[in-house]
Amino acid sequence: MVTKTEETELNQLENQVENGGGGVWEYLSLVRKLKVRRSEIVLKHGLSILNDPGKRSALGPDEWTLYEQVAIAAMDCQSLNVAQNCIKVLKKKFPESKRVGKLEALLLEAKGMWEEAEKAYTSLLEDNPLDQVIHKRKVAMAKAQGKPSLAIEHLNKYLEVFMADHDAWRELAEIYVSLQMYKQAAFCYEELILTQPTLPLYHLAYADVLYTIGGLENLIAARKYYAATIDLTGGKSTRALLGICLCGSAIAQLSKGRNKEDKDMAAPELQSLAATALEREYKQKAPAKLNLLSSALRSLKISS
Amino acid sequence: MGTGSNGELKYEISQNAYIKLVLHSLRHKTAAVNGVLIGRISPKDDGVVEISDSVPLFHSNLALLPPLEISLIMIEEHYVAQGLSIVGYFHANERFDDVELCGVAKNIGDHISRYFPQAPILLLNNKKLEALSKGKERSPVMQLCVKDASKNWRVVGADGGSKLLLKEPSANVVLSDYITSEKWKDVTDVDDHLDDVTKDWLNPGLFN
């Protein structure tokens, strides 16, 4: 994950590069190091180095790294000719390389030649069955073809082997959510919370999924995970505070007319606490929206 | 007016409402995005729904309820003072060549139409959007979908249809300019707001 400091550094450097202030190679190196996606800028400035024989040879062996970086950026920008030329140069230099083989497969994929790409990836996997990147390409290809169930199948197979890959679990969860398969998404977030219990993001996502499924039990559980999110962020999660208010209102509605014990589940004081924290935050940071927030919170209370 | 006659209604969308939604989808090119349409039934002609504004909603996990519920409450609350309300839904698919209305879009459209029965869904048409820079496309780059008598969402008009009208005929020209000048970078949605409440989903400075 990219930290705030790294992002600031990256943006400053990007600004400098975009305004002709130099530092292009430093920028390109940072983009690689942080694994961020800035394809348009990488393509523009990377290509200008590659097209300048003096600058290019000054890079020494890094020249090949740049060809690879520009090829990938070009594919992301649909500049397939540029990508093809970069890959051609690399192929000439490293005729037997599997790494270049991956780029060739990627190019087939970018051209939408799904069957050919699939074949290329399969043969690469025969040589190295544990290549995570290629497994993920297969998932991405299924998604690109509008076959989410195939993407799910690939991801599940992948996760049987690479159980500790958080990004893959998260991707799977998000595909499930997009197909409105909330129970399956909840399972993924449970896995993520188990392996990384201190990351508020997963608690929040889990709570959102539980709330979406609905029903008294899920709503009460959702509220617990919103509370955990607030705890883990030191009270700084607007989404979780709003979640507490939504849960309070929904729980009160569901437990209407039940016995007193069930009614206590609504825990109106928790909802009030969250509302106060939200109003404080808006007063400080978004005073123009404070009235809006207050009346929204009020309508949640009245409806409960 | 019966809900069965939604196909007869005309929807007139203002330039700002239209452009804001398209720019939002360009800001998040690799993700599905959505938004709501703000407006009213025309006081002059009850066969026309005037869409005068729009609010960009989300660019991640569109199918989760909590952020959606809270944003719909706040948006209704804001516009009610101006005599306006949520009158429809906008959706842009994740994939370029995906022209289907997905389950999530239909569900949110259904929800909105419970409060405003004439509510349409506008689905971004990527092919038309792409052609914008080359050609003289005058019609909206969105596909109009309405609920038919049997409560199913269906597309109106084969080519986007004349039922969805741009209030200002120049809207596509202005949109093209904004795309060239990368104005989409300035669009803020509710997702951004929930991560940092100083960001305003009303996008007050966008068209200045």
Automatic annotation (TrEMBL), chain A:
SUPFAM superfamilies: TPR-like. Its main location: endoplasmic reticulum. One of its GO terms (cellular component) is EMC complex. Gene3D superfamilies: Tetratricopeptide repeat domain. It is found in: Endoplasmic reticulum membrane. Component of the ER membrane protein complex (EMC). This is ER membrane protein complex subunit 2. It comes from Capsella rubella.
TrEMBL record, chain B:
Coiled coil: none annotated. CDD domains: MPN_UPF0172. Residues 11-146 form the MPN domain. InterPro entries: EMC8/9, MPN. It comes from the Eukaryota. Pfam families: UPF0172. GO terms for cellular component: EMC complex. Belongs to the EMC8/EMC9 family. This is MPN domain-containing protein. It comes from Capsella rubella.
